Amino acid sequence: MPADRGWWDCRHLGAPAERRGWQHGSAGRIDEGCRVDCWLCGDAARIRAARFEVFGEVEIIRAAGWLAAWLEGWTPAVARTVTGRWLAEAAGLPDEARTGALCIEDAMRSALTGWPQENGASDEH
To answer: Which domain of life is it from (predicted)?
Structure first.
């Protein structure tokens, strides 16, 4: 279902006040027009909370907030299927803001790299 372009939920925006227990990832650069920090909290089975800290256009901030709300309750495996293209379409991003969706995806994937594996195993060798 496409996101309402007027939707805004600041509960999912900004860094968490207490960062212990959160996985963090970032992507982009402020001097290039967009930087995104992703914060995920949960366990191997579920993402309990998600937050994005965005330095960029308002449309990108809205898309990140929408994705954070959407991620809550899903498994890490489902989160790994999210792509920038899907996010841009689902969040109704205008063409000029679609590269920001890739930055959001990259930040989320970065946060997921430290996530506990669903089967209890680690990625580390």
So the answer is: Bacteria
